[in-house]
Design goal:
The chain is mainly alpha-helical. The chain has a domain of 28 residues. It contains two helices and no strands. The longest helix is centred in the C-terminal third of the chain and has 12 residues.
């Protein structure tokens, strides 16, 4: 039986829980609102997924699911 390849990206956003709302970063994401895509670059563990998750929740935006 062939194994399915492992995904190279996170496909489900984590629960917001007690994550801090980063309003300064939210404003930057809001400013990029007309863009088709936004690239976030930072070292592992810097909070890229956390800031996007909290921004989606704070702005009531849906996350694309596959």
């Amino acid at each position: 039986m062939a194994q399915r390849p492992q995904p190279i990206a996170k496909l489900v956003r984590p629960a917001v829980g007690d994550l801090l709302a980063r309003e300064r970063l939210f404003d930057l994401l809001d400013a990029a609102g007309a863009a088709t895509a936004v690239w976030l670059a930072a070292p592992g563990g810097a909070g890229k997924t956390a800031v996007v998750t909290t921004w989606l929740e704070a702005r009531g935006r849906p996350a694309r699911r596959r």
